[in-house]
Design brief:
By secondary structure, this protein is mainly beta. 9% of the residues lie in helices and 38% in strands. The protein is built from one helix and 28 strands. Strands 1-28-27-26 form a four-stranded antiparallel β-sheet, with no helix packed on it. Strands 2-3-4-5 form a four-stranded antiparallel β-sheet, with no helix packed on it. A four-stranded antiparallel β-sheet has the order 6-7-8-9, with no helix packed on it.
């Protein structure tokens, strides 16, 4: 019976994936021909009752999601966004949460950013009813930006360069404890280079060992890759311009260990962001600029579940869709979002300023 049930679930997922691809592709093709507004799947806002900026997002499913943001805010929904529970850690009102990673509706890890002791990591195992501070930065030169997990136990967090190199934290117990990894395998940072704590996607992983780190502010927008959980790294330049503290690569998404998308630009309102997207097919060893990139700065990106070439990119001026793996993008929504994340059951969520959270509806 278990085998039969698993087979049915696999068939169901396959059919849903096919339906999703068709739903995305058919309207897009028709709209290109007719030059009419997008009529495919779209965002449906979910009232959180908050007005804070929510840059941290973890999609567990279509029903369950976590968001985190300014004023120490952490929210969780278990009913598809119809209601939200404030599960913020006690006494965190002055903290800036920029990344949250959730394993299910009960277990999550949230990162607060800032210089020195402002950078902290908290963990919950009971849906946010209680939190434990599992890391507090004591180095005034460190500033932590993002966190990612390979599985429910093993994860990494990254800091802007300390003494010329990015600093990496590691956990092997689900975020209960953390240690600083040796820096010998980390290449030198460029002058002025750093990560952007804009969407929780400056450090992302795929599979059991591969992880990528996005940078900006230096002479070139780069992506660093490690195939051994952060012990050794290689760096590659992308086609996304940097050369200014406000420009570079802001968000990454990898469908597998080879195929990835990078998005970014210039986060300052009104500033142009040419070449704001790039793609790789070799695990980040080389990057090619998108043929038709996003038209403006984008801070978050996510692959659509069970498709090989569909992805969404979001930013303050809108949402873009690609159907060819990031080579060409088209704006399909003009709402403001900072980050986006998708769960395997087609639970795609986006969040951003003024408490905005939305779920993709078909």
């Amino acid at each position: 019976m278990r085998g039969t049930g698993k087979t049915r679930r696999m068939v169901s997922v396959g059919l849903c994936g096919t339906a999703l691809a068709a739903a995305l592709a058919a309207p897009a093709q028709a709209d290109v021909q007719a030059r009419s507004p997008w009529s495919g799947p779209g965002w449906q806002l979910k009232d959180t009752g908050e007005d804070v900026r929510l840059r941290g997002l973890a999609a567990v499913s279509r029903r369950t999601a976590w968001v985190a943001g300014s004023k120490g805010t952490v929210l969780r929904t278990a009913d598809g966004g119809r209601s939200w529970r404030d599960v913020s850690p006690p006494g965190a009102g002055e903290m800036e949460f920029r990344d949250i990673e959730a394993f299910d509706g009960r277990r999550a890890v949230v990162l607060a950013i800032g210089e020195g002791e402002a950078s902290r990591i908290f963990r919950t195992g009971d849906g946010g009813a209680s939190w434990t501070e599992s890391f507090r930065n004591t180095d005034p030169k460190a500033f932590y930006d993002c966190v990612t997990f390979f599985d429910s136990r093993n994860g990494l967090a990254m800091s802007d360069p300390v003494d010329g190199k990015y600093r990496i934290l590691s956990t092997g117990d689900g975020g209960t404890s953390w240690k600083v990894l040796p820096s010998a395998g980390m290449p030198a940072a460029q002058s002025g280079e750093a990560g952007f704590a804009a969407s929780g996607q400056c450090l992302v992983s795929s599979g059991p060992r591969d992880v990528w780190l996005a940078t900006g502010g230096g002479a070139a927008g780069r992506v660093l890759h490690s195939a051994d959980r952060g012990l050794t790294w290689t760096a590659a330049e992308t086609a996304i311009p940097a050369g200014d503290p406000a420009r570079g690569v802001f968000g990454l998404a990898f469908r597998d260990r080879d195929h990835g998308i990078a998005v970014g630009g210039d986060y300052r309102a009104g500033e142009a962001s040419p070449r704001a997207a790039a793609v790789t097919g070799d695990g980040g060893r080389s990057w090619q600029g998108s043929k038709t990139p996003s038209p403006a700065y984008r801070s978050g990106v996510a692959w659509l579940p069970h498709t090989r070439s569909g992805a969404l990119a979001v930013g303050p001026t809108g949402t873009d869709l690609t159907l060819d793996g990031g080579r060409n993008w088209r704006t399909v929504d003009t709402g403001s979002y900072d980050t986006v994340d998708c769960a395997p059951d087609f639970g795609c969520w986006a969040s951003g300023e003024k408490g905005r959270v939305a779920r993709l509806e078909f």
